[in-house]
Amino acid sequence: MTAKKAWDGFSKGLIEEVQKWGSMKQTGVSLRYMMEFGSRPTTRNLLISSQFLHKELPIRIARRAIELESLPYGLSHKPAVLKVRDWYLDSFRDLRSFHDIKDKSDELEFTQMIKMIKVRHNNVVPMMALGVQQLKKDLDPKIDYKELDEIQQFLDRFYMSRIGIRMLIGQHVALHDPNPLPDCVGYIHTKMSPVEVARNASEDARSICLREYGSAPDVNIYGDPNFTFPYVPTHLHLMVFELVKNSLRAVQEKFVDSDKVAPPIRIIVADGLEDVTIKVSDEGGGIPRSGLPKIFTYLYSTAKNPLDEHSVNDLGTVTTMAGYGYGLPISRLYARYFGGDLQIISMEGYGTDAYLHLSRLGDSQEPLP
C-alpha cells in the first residue's frame, strides 16, 4: 500500500494541515505550574487553559498521526492501526475546525469537545495491541525481539505522548468540577496517601483474581498510612494494580494444585528523600533470566493473548488477569512520565520484586512530556 493510499478518505487540505502542525514544536508544562495554575480555576484561568490546549493539542495529535503513517514491517497498514490513525485524524480535524475561544461560553463548548476526544481515544492501547498482534501473525516466528527495536521505540514514544495528551485534557476538564475533593487540584492530589492508593489497587486486583480463579492470595501492605505527597492517584492506581495483578496470577498459578497456603503478596511503601518507592514482592516462582529482557517489550506476554477483532471493542469494560502484554511497559511509562521508574528483579524458582520509584513532584519545574 502506498503512502497516498494510506491517507485515502481524508482531504488533501487536512493532510497538509496535519503535516504543517506536526512540524511545530510542542510546549511542555511542569506539574508545579499545573498545581499553581489549577489551584485558582477562575473563569479567566480556564479561558487561558483552553486557549493553550486549542493550540497545543493539534501539534501533539498531528505528530502521532504522521508517525502512524510510517511504521516499519507494514504495521501502519494493519486494520487496527488504521483505525487508531483515523481516530487521531478525526480529533485533529475537530480541534482545528473549532473557532477561536474568546469567552466562557466558547470555553465550556471547547471543554465538552475535548472530553469527547478523550473518550474517542479510550481504546487506543488495546487497539494498537491488536495491530501488533496482527503484525506478529505475519512475521517470521524465528525473528528476534531485538530486531523489532524500531517498533518498540515508536510505541514508547506513542504511549508516552498519549499519557501527556490525556493528562492535559483530564486536568483541564477536572478543574471544572464544582465540588472537588479536598486537597485535589484537577487530577493532582496534593496530599495523596500511597498506602491508601496501594490498598485500593490491591483490592481491585484481588477481586479480579477471585473472579477468575475462585480464590486469591492475601496482600499485606507495610508503610505509614498518614504519609502523603503530591501525585496523580489514577496513575499510581494503574501502576500498582498491574504489578499486584501480575504477582497474584504468578502465585495463584504456582500454588493452584498445592496443599500449601499460597503466600501473601507484600507491598512496602518507603518515603525517601528523592523518591517514594513502592516495592511489590511475591513468591510466584519468578521469571527465567532469559525472559527478563522481554518483559518491557510490547511483543511479549507470558499469557494467552485475549485480543481479537471481536473482543477489542469490549476492552474498555472487561479486565482479565492477564492482558495483552502491555501492563509492565505501560506502567513504566507512567512512572517515567513524572521522572520516576519501574525496575523488576526476579529470582527464578522463588519470586519477583518490582520496585516502583515515584519522583517527588511538589517542587518539580521540569516540563512534562
TrEMBL record:
Q: Which family does it belong to?
A: Belongs to the PDK/BCKDK protein kinase family.
Give start and end of each Histidine kinase domain.
Answer: 233-362
Instruction: Kindly indicate whether the keyword Hydrolase belongs to this entry.
Output: no
**Listed InterPro entries:** AK/P_DHK_N_sf (IPR036784), BCDHK/PDK_N (IPR018955), BCKD/PDK (IPR039028), HATPase_C_sf (IPR036890), HATPase_dom (IPR003594), His_kinase_dom (IPR005467), Sig_transdc_His_kin-like_C (IPR004358)
**UniProt entry keywords in alphabetical sequence:** ATP-binding, Kinase, Mitochondrion, Nucleotide-binding, Pyruvate, Transferase
What EC numbers are recorded for this enzyme? 2.7.11.-
Superkingdom in the source lineage: Eukaryota
GO annotation terms (biological process): regulation of glucose metabolic process
Q: Which reaction does it catalyse?
A: L-seryl-[pyruvate dehydrogenase E1 alpha subunit] + ATP = O-phospho-L-seryl-[pyruvate dehydrogenase E1 alpha subunit] + ADP + H(+)
Q: Where in the cell is it found?
A: Mitochondrion matrix
Q: What is its main location?
A: mitochondrion
Please name one Pfam family that this protein belongs to: BCDHK_Adom3
UniProt xrefs under CDD domains: HATPase_PDK-like
Q: What PANTHER family is this protein classified in?
A: [PYRUVATE DEHYDROGENASE (ACETYL-TRANSFERRING)] KINASE, MITOCHONDRIAL, PYRUVATE DEHYDROGENASE KINASE
Q: Name one GO molecular function term.
A: pyruvate dehydrogenase (acetyl-transferring) kinase activity
Enzyme class, UniProt record, top EC level: transferase
The protein, known as: Protein-serine/threonine kinase
**SMART domains registered for this protein in UniProt:** HATPase_c
Q: Name one GO cellular component term.
A: mitochondrial matrix
